[in-house]
Design goal:
It contains 13 helices and 14 strands. The chain is α/β, with parallel strands linked by helices and 393 residues long. A 7-stranded mixed β-sheet has the order 2-10-9-8-5-3-4, sandwiched between helices. It is globular. Helix 10 packs antiparallel against helix 13 and helix 11 packs across helix 12. GO terms for molecular function: alanine-glyoxylate transaminase activity; L-serine-pyruvate transaminase activity. Its cofactor is pyridoxal 5'-phosphate.
Length: 393
């Protein structure tokens, strides 16, 4: 018989693309005793969680709830419910996670048109307009915060453009919710999905989604069965809607977690939270730039919560990341797809986005770069970051 010891992982500071560290209040909430998933007290908690989520998304959509699975299940829930075989779909491709949207949309039997831009760049409205005019799709899918490239896609006018062509706007907000400006109703977003483990400072396991009335009517008017039984919102909405009809056993503890995570977001205030992420990004960017690490995303469209920078010539990606983890207990992310082995991704999300972590990761990364033979002026990154904080004070 194999004897397994007590669980005791080493302490880590999770500054990669996710998960980020959970807030202590979230972890405390998860120790709350279990309730049944149809218990009247838990139904009250479900109602509260939905309302908190509406406030975080800045929406009044009734169909707003956390899918009982991770962010990619949120993506799949949106696509398989909105799309039927033969429907036309346009996906804006400029990074790793938009490629997943293409894959899932194709599996529904949709006709998928890919609108492509180089990784690290954004789409302009005219480019999208021409594609919508030509294809006349049912759905346009786009990533708001592309985690693989650190790019922030402008969204303010996109909903109006889609609706001009009677097209539903589907948005990947996995890395934006709780970190950067996100206004579902004002921006005319019809379907959106995110995750629990980044800006909301919870463990992985839930994917908050929200559907406009237009999108909800499309789901209700389907002519074919939804491809996935588990993610079929025509059934799931009966559990998360007014009837609370049994569909699946909800992850009770994770609902406790996201409820507390959302309470933290709203206690801080959305505007204050967005500003905090931008301020720490400015300081981190100054430090990384001083150390000779250029950003992959085009200027003016860089994510504050996910900083993707190019690895210096001759430096091995994995060696540095292993050293960061072994010597400092800090996790940073490597590149994906086209950026594999070429990019580091440093997350400053939710509970982790604080000056102490900015200064710590800069100091640790400088040490690792110097160990790898890179000529870096001692203390230059921390000094550059401190200068930014002095200006912001």
């Amino acid at each position: 018989m194999t004897v397994v010891g007590q669980l005791n992982p080493s302490p880590r500071l999770l500054l990669g693309p996710g998960p980020s560290d959970a807030h202590p209040r979230v972890l405390s909430a998860m120790s709350t005793p279990l309730l049944g998933h149809l218990d009247p007290q838990f139904i009250t908690i479900m109602n509260e969680t939905q309302e908190l989520l509406r406030q975080a998304y800045l929406t009044k959509n009734p169909l707003t709830f956390p899918v009982s699975a991770t962010g990619m299940a949120g993506m799949e829930a949106c696509l398989v419910n909105l799309i039927e075989p033969g429907d036309k779909v346009v996906v804006c491709y400029a990074g790793y996670f938009s490629s997943r949207m293409i894959d899932v949309a194709g599996r529904t039997g949709a006709e998928v048109t890919v609108l492509e831009r180089p990784w690290g760049t954004v789409f302009d409205l005219q480019q999208i307009r021409e594609t919508l005019q030509r294809v006349r799709p049912k759905v346009l899918g786009i990533v708001h915060a592309e985690t693989s490239t650190g790019t922030l896609q402008p969204m303010e006018e996109l909903g109006n453009l889609c609706h001009e062509f009677d097209c539903l706007l589907l948005v990947d907000a996995v890395t934006s919710l709780g970190c950067t400006e996100l206004k579902v109703d004002e921006w005319g977003i019809d379907a959106i999905y995110s995750c629990s483990q980044k800006g909301l400072s919870c463990p992985p396991g839930l994917s908050p989604v929200s559907f406009s009335d237009r999108a909800t009517q499309v789901i209700k008017a389907r002519k074919s069965k939804v491809q996935s039984w588990y993610l079929d919102l025509t059934s799931v909405m009966q559990y998360w809607g007014g009837e609370r009809t049994y569909h699946h056993t909800a992850p009770i503890t994770m609902v406790y977690a996201i409820r507390e995570g959302l309470r933290l977001v709203l206690e801080e205030g959305l505007e204050a939270r967005w500003k905090r992420h931008w301020n720490n990004h400015k300081a981190l960017k100054a430090g990384l730039t001083a150390m000779g690490l250029p950003y992959t995303a085009q200027e003016g469209h860089q994510l504050p919560q996910l900083n993707a920078v190019r690895i210096p010539e001759g430096v091995d990606d994995l060696t540095v990341r292993k050293q960061m983890l072994a010597q400092f207990g800090i996790e940073i992310g490597g590149g994906l797809g086209d950026f594999k082995g070429k990019v580091w991704r440093i997350g400053m999300m939710g509970h982790n986005s604080w000056p102490k972590n900015v200064l710590l990761v800069l100091s640790a990364l400088e040490h690792c770069l110097r160990t790898a033979g890179v000529l870096v002026a001692p203390g230059c990154g921390v000094a550059a970051a401190e200068a930014v904080y002095a200006q912001l004070a």
